[in-house]
């Protein structure tokens, strides 16, 4: 069987109350969708679970409509739609073969799903929960990136090493861009929406970032970085990019203004996922299964120095940052848990058990709720932020000099690999 690398990027958008969101609320009330699905089950003092289809692997939230979407691979080939109001599954939508990544445009209330073995993108109306279009893209489509300002959708096609560019108004492919080798990247994309520029990680020994103009849909530069970069994030406040270089245990710091590497930061072995807080200028890096170090490295974006190393679970797949509470969540695939970390003190404050093999996380900052997809448990774990113990747990932290900061925004990543 093929090797799949799956990634999700979740960015909490500005909340815009649209006619579509109002209409959806009216439609939900009229159709009685809330009655579908079994009731949530309380499985821990800090979480409850919502039953969904087989093998939930990717999850996304629309904070405007308070709806949650999770994709299901293998036998199910579907999307489960969960009401955040009732905590019940309200719809199951059939899509293409082996859906991998689900993403939501909260401005247009549209949902996008990459179908890896159908080589297609399913486009779903969040208002009706119906597939409104299926668009053929490249081979093994994986990641989805949405520019909400231009209503443009970008699809990373792993096998063909291309980017499909789709107009969100017409659902037509308007360009196909050949890029570097993107096979194996944990997070293919980052975007500067203000400048309409897209950044793509190039994996392998010739690690680099391809820079794409969203205006011309052409590669305009290639920036060499470290060995085998697996993840890239962009800080819109400082205009800096960060890549987790799995092959040489470093993070490359790239200026988006000059397209040059300005620093290289040593971190723990096999860094895989990275997240950034644009408001506090702090960067968070976790390591994959090959690393013996189950630590979250905290980097000060002003000094480019590691200021803390925090003990977490094993097999980190995701990092999510909750802006309103200054909390970081790390999804521990091998530990079946979520590490909860204070961004104010850089200390572990809680470890919450979830289902088997958690892969993906999404946060609704409006309702103060965290959602986790558990690949080998057919349910989504729900963690209300009010359940959290905000006291520190010092025995799991590793002291280094700390430069304190607070943080904002939600950026999440995940990865899972299969071999047969």
Automatic annotation (TrEMBL):
* Residues spanning the membrane: 396-416
Q: Which Gene3D superfamilies match?
A: YVTN repeat-like/Quinoprotein amine dehydrogenase (2.130.10.10)
Which of UniProt's keywords are assigned here?
Answer: Membrane, Transmembrane, Transmembrane helix
- Identify the InterPro entries for this entry: Haem_d1_sf, Host-pathogen_enzymatic-act, WD40/YVTN_repeat-like_dom_sf, YVTN_b-propeller_repeat
User: Does the keyword section mention Ligase?
Assistant: no
Is the keyword Transmembrane in the record? Answer: yes
- What NCBIfam families does UniProt report for this protein, alphabetically? beta_rpt_yvtn
Q: What is this protein called?
A: 40-residue YVTN family beta-propeller (Modular protein)
Q: Which organism is it from?
A: Nitrosotalea devaniterrae
């Amino acid at each position: 069987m093929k090797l799949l690398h799956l990634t999700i990027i979740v960015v909490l958008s500005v909340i815009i109350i649209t006619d579509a969101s109002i209409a959806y609320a009216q439609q939900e009330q009229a159709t009685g969708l809330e009655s579908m699905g079994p009731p949530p089950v309380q499985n821990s003092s800090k979480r409850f679970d919502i039953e969904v289809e087989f093998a939930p692997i990717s999850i996304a939230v629309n904070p405007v409509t308070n709806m949650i979407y999770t994709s299901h691979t293998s036998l199910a080939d579907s999307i489960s739609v969960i009401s955040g109001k009732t905590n019940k599954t309200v719809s199951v939508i059939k899509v293409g073969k082996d859906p991998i990544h689900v993403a939501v445009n909260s401005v247009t209330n549209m949902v996008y799903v990459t179908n890896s073995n159908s080589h297609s993108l399913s486009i779903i109306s969040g208002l009706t929960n119906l597939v409104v279009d299926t668009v053929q893209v490249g081979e093994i489509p994986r990641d989805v990136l949405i520019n909400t300002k231009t209503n443009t959708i970008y699809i990373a096609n792993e096998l063909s090493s291309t980017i499909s560019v789709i107009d969100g108004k017409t659902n037509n492919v308007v360009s196909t861009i050949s890029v570097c080798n993107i096979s194996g990247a944990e997070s293919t994309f980052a975007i500067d929406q203000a400048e309409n520029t897209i950044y793509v990680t190039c994996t392998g020994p010739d690690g680099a970032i391809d820079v794409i103009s969203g205006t011309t849909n052409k590669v305009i530069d290639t920036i060499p970085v470290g060995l085998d970069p697996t993840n890239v994030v962009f800080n819109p406040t400082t205009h800096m990019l960060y890549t987790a270089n799995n092959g040489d245990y470093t993070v490359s710091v790239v200026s988006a203004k000059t397209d040059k590497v300005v620093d290289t930061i040593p971190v723990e072995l096999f860094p895989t996922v990275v997240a950034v807080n644009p408001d506090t200028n702090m960067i968070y890096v976790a390591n994959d299964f090959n690393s013996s170090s189950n630590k979250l490295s905290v980097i000060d974006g002003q000094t480019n120095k590691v200021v803390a190393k925090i003990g977490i679970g094993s097999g980190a797949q995701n990092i999510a940052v909750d802006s309103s509470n200054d909390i970081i969540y790390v999804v521990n695939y091998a530990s079946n848990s979520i590490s909860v970390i204070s961004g104010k003190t850089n200390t572990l404050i809680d470890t919450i058990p979830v289902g088997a093999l958690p892969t993906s996380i999404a946060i609704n900052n409006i309702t103060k709720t965290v959602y986790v997809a558990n690949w080998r448990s057919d349910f989504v774990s729900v963690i209300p932020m009010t359940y959290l113990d905000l006291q520190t747990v010092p025995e799991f932290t590793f002291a280094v000099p700390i430069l304190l900061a607070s943080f904002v925004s939600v950026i999440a990543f995940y990865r899972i690999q299969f071999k047969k």
